Amino acid sequence: MAELLHGSHMQTLDERQRLPIPSKLVPVMRELAGVTNEEDDFMVVVTLTDRKTVAVYPKPVFDKMIDGLDRKIKKRPTPPLLKLRRAYVNMMDVQSLDKQNRVKVPQLHAGLMKLTKEVAVVGSGDYLEIMSVGRYEEIMNEVLPTMSEWSDSLLLGQTDEDDGNEDAG
Q: Which pTM value belongs to this model?
């Protein structure tokens, strides 16, 4: 199994909307893209997410996600699935990283997501999310207060139905 894209990294978009991928994540991106030779280019897909962020997927990962959506749509073409697929595909930009391992954030994406010079690059398993520092802070403010209760319930094997309290009976 491939290593996960992980961590939060503050990065700077240059004047041409290019963003350096954190150096420790480049080998992971290559592995996820199925490219082993460091000299070979690999393709990424830049698109938007439902979390109000820009996503950078290794192309094989994106293709697999779209194939999965297509299978679900074929079985049951619900409006939310169709809208999700349309949004991902309509906003996709296929490109390769440049020699400095930078990705170009399309102007439309940067504008819609209100990206400025300073952005957060967050590893999300098999893709990266790019977001404004303000959006990153919003997400962290939502997540941090509940982490303790999530970890207690997940690590202790408790669910909502089984919170560890036994009824006397």
A: 0.83
